[in-house]
Amino acid sequence: MRARRFTRSTMIEHVAYDEAAAVLAVTFRGSGKYLYHGVSREIYEGLCSAASLGAFFNAHIKDRFRCERDPARKRFGPGA
Q: What's the pLDDT tens digit per position in 17-30?
């Protein structure tokens, strides 16, 4: 598992990549963690080295891979 935390991005706080499962976990500031399935190592590395993480995410990841909200995420409040 590879992981990186970003302070330079206003959109993305943290990413982790499981190469064996080809799963990219992206933690967004304010909206939580999502898992993207079928992501290649090249896409993960491109995201980590991009000048703008948000622009790279929108151009190369968003709506291109099966996505789910992190099932391990704890929910709080009414209806949780």
A: 999 999 999 999 98
